[in-house]
Design goal:
This is TolC family protein. By secondary structure, the chain is an alpha+beta fold. The chain has eight helices and six strands; from the N terminus they run αβααββααβαββαα. α6 packs antiparallel against α7.
Length: 418
Amino acid sequence: MKRLLLIFFVIAPLLLSAQQVLTLEECYVLAEKNYPLAKQSALLKEKLNSEIKILEKEKLPKLDLNAQATYQTDVIEFPIQIPNTTIEPSNKDQYRATIDANQLIYNGGNIAANTKLKQAELQTQQQQVAVNLYALKSRINQSYFSILLFQEQEKLLSSKMEQLDARLKEMIAGVKYGAVLPASQQMLQAEMLKLEQQLTQTKFDRKKTLNNLSLLLSKSLDSTIILENPEILVSPESISERPELELFNLQENQLETSKEVISKSNYPKLLGFAQAGYGNPGLNMLDNSFQDFYMVGLKMNWNIFDWGKTKEKKQTVDISKEIVLTEKETFLLNNQMQQKEAESDIKKYEEILQKDTEIIMLREKVLQATTSQLQNGAITSSEYITELNNLYEAKIDNQLHEIQMALSKANFKIIKGN
């Protein structure tokens, strides 16, 4: 006997550890990590790095190779004759090949402003990904608590079957010795088969919902997995931390940064340039021969009047900021309404659960008396089954209300952003 106990205590922890337990918080973490949308954040960062490299290349010199051969119907000729001097006109067929280099020296910080705008866009896009991933939590809640409800219903149905099986054994013994009519036994057997049907349906419903949760988490979940019933504490006074609020702030910042880019687009641009070439004629138009040549210099471009385009663009940005502000106000209003509804649901289930406890206590007393009456042959199996069903319906209702209470609390925390 001692040896058997020793083996049990050695194996028991291994069996417990082998049974997988999943919590609601673990589901949230797995979804944020494995859901395909989560990969976008890193991809957006890679995209930004490429775009910034492209912007930085604007600071590098630009080299162009140009070549042309032309024939023209007329050329420059001197209208007068200079004594003792012969000036030949240029050839009508001309050839030229050049390498042109342009180096940006100053552009009013336009590249830096565009880089800053790209970084602001990245933050906004990554926050949008965070918002989309956050929305998954509501779907996870629905699947998680549905599975939890099926899980608890399986326990209650199994408990009910055990209790009914005990009565059935008593009826079988009673029929054997002629103390009970066979109909009483058959009625209990029919009820057992009905319970087996309900248990089968519950198991299949649980498995189906578990598969949905598995897809949301991108993780295979075994049908034997146990979901933990979470203890959720809510604080209505806590400050809202919804990711949408940060998204609105980042959108406003992005729009404000774009105004800086608009302003700097009209700043003067200073470039250095150089040209080296070979052609006929060269820079000396009076020399009809192939020559090499070069020139260097500076050039500036400044659009001093743009017909108010810059002002209109900034006004458009300001309108966009107003649109973002209205979206933020709308979100806060709807979020406040959702909070009030969730708070009301929590209070509703608190009161319902108090009544559930009283109902179950009374049903248990009735069933206890009914069981004694059945054992003494004072009532039929039908009357006993009625009271047994009443008790377990009350327990199932209580379990449903407890799950709905936990779901309401979990949804409240998501609505609140905590």
